[in-house]
Specification:
428 residues
Length: 428
């Protein structure tokens, strides 16, 4: 899309050039081009600010847009219909709450949602912990997630080797686990089959029944493969000795039904917790789609800040063009007087200098767009930064360059048009 927009702009410039050569304006256009060509070094330096400014704006937009799309893609891979239920926050109104406020999600809530919710396809209570996992002389720090079987469908986990734990394992709180690739690489650097091996998390021995397919790092730089997944009953009873959940993860029927599912879950949990109508919720419900929207909004704000910062270089470049054009008017005062003496109007002189300013700005803009494309390719191939150049950013850059040429060329053009022919001819 961006390539097509760039080609259209170049074709438009060529068409305008051809038209200019066949009209009365063509003579003025050719004079402006000749004046720029006679001062190649100065014209190139004037363009340099525009080139840098436009390239910076395009690169900032591309990195911002690419990062946003990368984050959306990573979140989408986890499922856009995921709903997360958390216990009440430990900070409310700036005041730290009692620890019991974090224990509001119980087995009764899980069972009520599972039996009554009609907009939910999968549900998994979650209990988390972190610590050291050991096998022989090898050890590493990792996170443990206590889940139900449906967690695999909610988070779209796949098993590369072995099998998943069973419902019987959940009911009996069996000491079994699924391991991520990072944990396997740290504990078993020599390779080999790890299925059936017994490792220790803290002081509890657990048997490996499956190895998860690698997901790599997410957009936040977190290693998604550094984890263990166990039956939630095992973590609750044998590891943490607690009766409450850290959270409950659900999956709505469809992404479009997420709002209905949240409303239904809210009703069920308020009834289960016996909350009065005027009482605040002692739980928090968030959807993956809401998280995606929040992250997109944040990235848009960051991109806007970066673009505004880069756009200041365009303002400086515009001032540079105005300065160079004012110098040009001073140097060519006698030429302007001669042209006026043979019948050139003030408007003709003004148009000539405006065309020179616009040509410098637009040419610099086109070169800046090409440089921006090159820098984006470099950022992607060398630094592995996600980039995506939106077509509208090229159109905007081209329009801004034209506007800069008009605005900052207006004062020199007006000064040239207002020169007195007699005084101009006498100028040395």
């Amino acid at each position: 899309m961006s390539i097509i927009v760039l080609l259209v702009i170049i074709a438009l410039v060529v068409a305008l050039y051809i038209v200019a050569r066949t009209t009365l304006l063509g003579m003025t256009f050719r004079v402006a081009v000749k004046a720029i060509a006679n001062n190649k070094g100065r014209s190139l330096l004037s363009m340099l600010g525009i080139i840098i400014g436009v390239a910076a704006v395009i690169v900032m937009m591309a990195i911002g847009q690419g990062s946003k799309e990368s984050i959306r893609k990573n979140i989408s891979q986890m499922g856009t219909n995921i709903i997360m239920i958390r216990p009440g926050a430990d900070m409310r109104g700036g005041v730290r709450q009692d620890p019991s406020s974090m224990q509001t999600l119980k087995m009764e809530d899980f069972e009520a949602i599972k039996s009554r919710a009609s907009y939910i396809t999968y549900i998994s209570p979650e209990v988390t912990s972190s610590g050291q996992v050991i096998y022989g002389a090898n050890n590493t720090n990792t996170s443990v997630y206590g889940e139900s079987l449906e967690y695999m469908d909610i988070k779209q986990w796949e098993i590369e080797d072995g099998t998943c734990f069973t419902e019987q394992d959940v009911q009996t709180a069996a000491k079994v686990c699924l391991v991520g690739k990072t944990v396997v690489d740290e504990l078993f650097p020599d390779g080999g089959d790890v299925i059936g091996k017994t490792i220790r998390f803290k002081t509890m021995p657990v048997r490996i029944v499956g190895v998860l397919k690698s997901k790599g790092y997410n957009s936040f730089g977190m290693d998604q493969d550094n984890l263990l997944i166990m039956p939630y009953t095992t973590v609750m009873k044998r590891l943490l000795a607690q009766t409450f959940f850290s959270s409950i993860n659900c999956s709505a029927l469809t992404e479009e039904m997420t709002d209905e599912a949240i409303e239904e879950l809210t009703t069920i949990l308020r009834e289960t917790h016996k909350l009065k109508e005027d009482a605040d919720d002692d739980f928090t419900i968030r959807s993956q789609a809401e998280m995606m929207e929040t992250m997109s909004s944040t990235m848009d704000n960051v991109t806007l800040i970066l673009v505004v910062a880069a756009a200041f270089s365009l303002l400086v470049a515009g001032i540079g063009i105005m300065n160079i054009m004012l110098v040009s008017v001073t140097e060519r005062t006698k030429e302007i007087g001669l042209r006026m003496s043979v019948g050139a109007r003030g408007m003709d002189i003004s148009v000539q200098f405006l065309i020179e300013s616009i040509l410098i700005s637009v040419t610099g803009g086109l070169l800046g767009i090409l440089v921006g494309f090159g820098l984006c390719q470099l950022a992607t191939s060398v630094f592995a930064l996600p980039t995506s150049i939106p077509g509208w950013s090229i159109i905007l850059s081209f329009a801004v360059c034209t506007l800069i040429g008009v605005l900052f060329g207006y004062i020199p053009a007006t000064k040239a048009a207002n020169l007195d022919p007699i005084e101009a001819i006498r100028y040395e």
